[in-house]
Each structure stands twice: as C-alpha cells, then as structure tokens.
Amino acid sequence: MKVIKIIGLGPGDPKHISRKAWEILSSSDELLLRTNTHPVAQALPSSVRVESFDKFYAAITDFDEIYERIVGRVIELADKRDAVVYAVPGDPNVGESTVALLRDEARRRGIQVDIIPGISFIEPSLDLLEIDALDGLYIADALSLAAGHHPPFSPDIPVLVAQLYSQNIAADVKLTLMNQYADDHPAALLHHVATEQAQVENLVLYEIDRSEFIDGMTTLYLPPVETSSSFEAFQETVAHLRAPDGCPWDREQTHESLRKHILEEAYEVLQAIDNQDLDALKEELGDLLLQIVLQAQIAGETGIFRMSDILRGINSKIIRRHPHVFEGMEVNGIDEVLHNWEALKAVEREANGRGEGILDGIPGHLPALAQANEIQSRAARVGFAWPALKQILNKIEEQYAEVQEARELDEQSKELGDLFFALVNYAQWLDIDPETALRATNKRFQVRFSRMENSIIEQGKNLSEIASNELEHLWQEQKG
Fold it and tell me: Do residues 99 and 18 share a domain?
C-alpha cells in the first residue's frame, strides 16, 4: 500500500526533533519540505534531496490556493512511488492546514498516512511564559482571528495565538481582540521559540502590530483578564445561586415569579438610554442579562431548554434572516432588507406549521404607542403604507376633525385612538420612534414643571395658591 509519511520537525532548534523523525529523514533519498526556512532544514544530511514548497509562497498570495498546490504536489508524487516523506514545522497535528487536506485526499485515494509527531510551538512557549497548559489554555489561529469580528474564546482563560507572521496580520488580529479586551490589556509576543534567538516581548494589546520583530516564527500570548468577565463565568454564578448551597430566594424563583423583574429591568434600560447615562446603561443591561440567564437556568434544570439552545436558535435565526450579509445576496437599501426580513419570517412560520400572519406575534403587553409603531412597521414592510407624506397629513386632519365632531364618550375614545394611530404613521414617515419621542416630551415637561414649582416655593408660596394666569406666566419663564 502506498504511504505518505508526515514528519514533525519540531519548533526550531534541530536538537528538539524526535529520534524516530531523524532516523526517517536521514534514511530518505528525497524529502518534501513545506518550507525551507525552518532551522532543521539547514541541518539535514547532504545526501537527502530536498524539494521545498517555498516557491508557492513566493508566487501565490492566497493561502488556500498555496495549500491546495502543496497537497496536489504531494499526492502527485505519492501516486508514482511507494512512499513519500513530507516534513512540516512543529507537530503535524498543530496548525498544519496541509496535513488535514492531505489526510482527506489520501483517504479518498486509498493512500496510507503515517504521522510522526514532533514538539509543537506550544511546549517551548509554555516554558518561556512559565505557565501550565492545563489552566485552560486556548490555542487560536491568527488568520482566523484576523478574518473575524469577535474572539471565539473566553477572556477568562490564557490564549496563544499562532501564525502571527506579519504586522498586517497583527493589526487585524488586534482589532478583533479589542472587541473583547481593553486596549491596554497586557500581551506578549514570543519570537523564535526553541531557538537561541528566542525572546519574549512584553507590551499591551494596542501595541502588538508595532513590533519590529514579528516574522514567521511569532506567537501572541494573552493572559486572562484579572476579574472574571466571560458569559460562562456569569452562568456559573447564576447556577450556583440556584444550587442547593446557593441563595434561598433565587432557588424559589420560577418563570412566572420573575416576570415583573424582567419588565422592570427592561424599563430601567430604556430610562438609562433616555438619560444618555452610559454608566447606568452598562449596569442596567447587566441587571437585564441576569434575568435572562436566570430564566435559562430555571428551564435548564427541568431539561426544557438550555442557554446553548437559546444562543443556537437566535444565532441561526439572525444568520438566516441576513442572507445579504452571510450568503452574498445583493440588496438595494434598507427597505429591501426589511421586505426580505418579512418574507423570510413568513417562510419560517409556514415551515413551523404556524401559518401566522404578518401582524401575529406582536406582544400584547407593549405600550400602546410602541405596539402601534410595530403594527404599522410590519405592514409597511410588505408595501401597505401611504406612498406620500401629503396623504398622511390629510389623514391626520381627517381624524382630528372626527374627534371634534364626536359627541359620545365611546365615539370620542375611538376617534382619538384613530388620531393617535395616524400620528404614529406620521412619526414613521419621519423615521422617529413615537414611544421615544413621547418619553422625551414627558421628561422635558417634568423638568420644566419642577423648575416652576421650585421657583414658587422659593417665593414662599404654595403651588395650589397660584392663579392659572400667573401659572402660565411662570411656565413661560421656565421655557427653554
């Protein structure tokens, strides 16, 4: 049976290569090297003919294409010979894309693959940093991080980021990491581990792409944050509250008993937004998150669903409803995005056998203005809306006239509701959220009225003692 032997050359210095790997290298007539820049390549016996794939790196910029070319060449030679020896830096099973591709292709062709392990960059990195991998170490790929938008790992664990081979890659990696870590989070760049030139460059996160020593043998290390801040750590805290040795109050809570707390926390978030108080917003979002995690923990204890089910469901839904982001669909503007959104929701409802209409599922407990806004927004997404502003203004005038003409209380209530509904339509045309607008007006009125009231008190008077015409005068004084 034909065989491909894949050898790990170790992290750098030839003395780290295994005896078995050296015996195979020394006894081979020909050797295929992923790169000739590895220190072991310079120490090979002169009797070994070497074919290096550095030529692909020099001629091609796309790494996927480079790896495909390397694999194609190895397979081509394997088809012609009984055995082929292919050597890669470090360990073949750590950060070697060509090895995974080779395994798949060899399996399809019935070619045997033998792996001769080597020391990877991880072990000497741990030695330089004086840390233990069993403390939760995460190994990340710089290229994947550079292409992403948020790190896929917890900030509570130590992280090694391999293949940080250039300042450009470091810059992209930095931007991704800074979506989770503080700009001045401590970091270390490890250069040329397991060689005589090994060094640790200590700096902070925002500086990593400024290092002059970054090259093909650079690794980034990120220590954990000082205080637990991962979602998983928070889930552990909440789960502990619900455990037998946790908090008696938290253990007694149910989905129903926590209902009012969710509503209260949501409104406190809105208040922080209205007040433009970002410190309060940070705190209130945390309080709201506590309610969400508590609900998930209670459900998980009974096996109904878990937080992972919640996250999986919403992540899949968001990706599914954004084909213009994740599937390359072309859209022309926000209106088309919203129209597609409603069309996709309709398909989902049909697939789930619910057969709901466009307006089904709007929460009945929403404030009336917010509910009206959502109703009209959904209708507009499928084209049911006034095409011109003049028609909306005409409708408002019509509804106002009907309010004035109404005589019975029930009729007045109905016509006033219609007027409010038309005003919400006008707000939508202006791209204004009516609930937010009214809340802002309420706040302005409260502030102005309080100033007027304080002014009266400072004069030694009582608000109820002031005549209405004087109140109007004082009110106008507080305007602005």
Answer: yes
